[in-house]
Amino acid sequence: MSEIKEILVATGNPGKIVEIRAMLDADVRWLCLADMPPIAEIEEDGLTFAENAYKKAAGYAKATGLWTLADDSGLVIDALGGAPGVKSARFSGEKTKDADRTLIDHRNIAKTLELLKDVPKEKRTARFVCRLCLASPERILIETKGTLEGLITDKEIGRNGFGYDPIFFVPHLNKTVAQMTGEEKNAISHRGNAIREFKPLLDELLKTGL
Ligand code: IMP
Fold this sequence. Notes:
Blueprint: E1 5-9, H1 14-24, E2 28-32, H2 49-64, E3 67-77, H3 101-115, E4 125-135, E5 140-152, E6 168-170, E7 175-176, H4 182-188, H5 190-208
Parallel strand pairs: 1-2, 1-3
Antiparallel strand pairs: 3-4, 4-5, 5-6, 6-7
Helix pairs in contact: 4-5
Residues 44, 72-75, 88-89, 108, 128, 161-165, 177, 189 line the site of inosinic acid.
């Protein structure tokens, strides 16, 4: 019998860890950064979501010697030339500590709505994007991508979720992401889609033991 594989999830966001572990449901011992001795934080200064996910996965894998899973996600708005993109978390200023997250979310939303105030409904197309990357200290093992298409509203609607959820309207469900339950969101979300694509690839990798 081979040993149970340990995989480090390289995020400080506890919500993401719970979601990723539950959805992947693999025979793996999941670790998070808090389980590790202090490691210098890896900058998310890439130009694309894929680059940032790779940088974090490869960087923490090299630092710890463990297989490491990292994600990078954000909002891409067509009328803003793809902004806020990789800067989604810090669109209105610098990213701060967890305690200020709600305030930062509100400021990010306010800036987005202001920039879009003269843009008509049909031109307010946008998508959430999520990139996942699993790396060993030597190489990339798995990379996947998930998206969710929608329209940016002209005001906040709904109270669930986080980030840009209250202004992201999903036409086929006729509601914003902030009006969805966690389960409803997972079933269609960019992160949910990236994880669903990732799962069979991880299962195969664990089976072959490479
Ligand atoms: P990350 O934690 O570096 O991936 O930052 C992603 C940022 O993109 C978050 O802080 C949010 O502003 C935004 N974002 C990513 N996923 C979502 C989502 O599911 N809903 C709302 N906003 C999101």
